[in-house]
Recover the amino acids of this structure.
């Protein structure tokens, strides 16, 4: 990693720590953070300590995990596909992970086995990334890959709509709809333990791809001539993306655009190197998601605005501006 990229990553880690503290402190419950920490340290089961452990800490940890996974996956997909518009949401990975989680909901597996929900999310994300890898391996162009991703996302959305249509009761359908909007409220440490281990494994897998992705910017044949196993790199990116995105979507619902916005903002700061972008994207995605989650709590809307809705309101205009910018360059 270059000195500039290292300093950027270190600054983003510090920003993530500051926003984590702000996230733990923010909320409508009037939490005395200092007293809550002191009670927790001394083993006192006070109301402040319970709010800290059961509500605020899980929410902050899940925001970090969700944002880091989405942003690093977006950076990896953009490097792998050599397309700055690639994103777990745009190429259908998030929608497929959501479909896998909805299948776990709908079938009753999530109620019978706690691991069914994250495993359903991972399976959905893995299926989408495998299809993209097969298309990429056959030499498909950038436009074909993006359109394939859009088709995957649309098909996953259609199957999710089918599950809603056939939901056994309006309450079950409403539960799925609210979950799909994406939120970190009312999550517990059980959700943290379900999401953190697989996402951490996915982040480690993706973080090891930096040099290979740097080489692949010169073309796959050149990367192979430099000693990199292109097929192994592609499979590792697929597995890492599925692990980094699927469990986050499974516990938080559909939260899009983090993997598109964060790498795009960071790319000029790291010299457009995919390897440097990977390591900077994780803390930046965590900080971005923490900031957005703090914002939905501070906005005077009742009920609370969903995190996925907030990200969509930010991300959709951002994506439109990227498309217009690209069209002007091509024109």
């Amino acid at each position: 990693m270059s000195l500039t990229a290292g300093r950027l990553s270190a600054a983003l880690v510090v920003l993530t720590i500051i926003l984590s503290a702000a996230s733990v402190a923010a909320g409508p419950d009037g939490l005395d953070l200092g007293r809550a920490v002191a009670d927790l340290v001394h083993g006192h089961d006070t109301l402040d300590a319970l709010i800290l452990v059961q509500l605020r800490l899980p929410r902050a940890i899940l925001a970090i995990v969700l944002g880091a996974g989405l942003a690093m996956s977006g950076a990896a997909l953009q490097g792998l596909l050599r397309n700055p518009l690639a994103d777990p949401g745009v190429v259908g990975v998030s929608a497929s992970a959501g479909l896998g989680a909805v299948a776990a909901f709908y079938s009753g597996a999530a109620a019978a086995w706690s691991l069914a929900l994250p495993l359903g999310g991972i399976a959905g994300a893995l299926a989408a990334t495998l299809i993209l890898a097969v298309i990429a391996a056959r030499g498909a162009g950038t436009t074909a890959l993006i359109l394939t991703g859009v088709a995957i996302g649309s098909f996953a959305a259609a199957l999710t709509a089918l599950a809603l249509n056939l939901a056994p009761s309006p309450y079950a359908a409403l539960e799925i709809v609210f979950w799909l909007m994406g939120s970190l409220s009312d999550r517990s440490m059980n959700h943290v333990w379900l999401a953190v281990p697989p996402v951490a494994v996915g982040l480690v897998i993706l973080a090891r791809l930096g040099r290979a992705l740097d080489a692949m910017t010169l073309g796959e044949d050149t990367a192979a001539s430099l000693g990199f196993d292109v097929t192994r790199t592609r499979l590792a990116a697929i597995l890492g993306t599925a692990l980094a995105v699927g469990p986050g979507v499974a516990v938080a619902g559909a939260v899009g655009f983090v993997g598109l916005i964060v790498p795009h903002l960071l790319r000029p700061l790291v010299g457009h190197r995919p390897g440097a972008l990977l390591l900077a994207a994780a803390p930046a995605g965590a900080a971005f998601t923490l900031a957005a989650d703090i914002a939905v709590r501070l906005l005077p809307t009742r009920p609370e605005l969903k995190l996925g809705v907030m990200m969509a309101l930010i991300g959709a205009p951002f994506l439109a501006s990227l498309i217009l910018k690209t069209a002007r360059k091509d024109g």
Remarks:
- The radius of gyration is 20 Å.
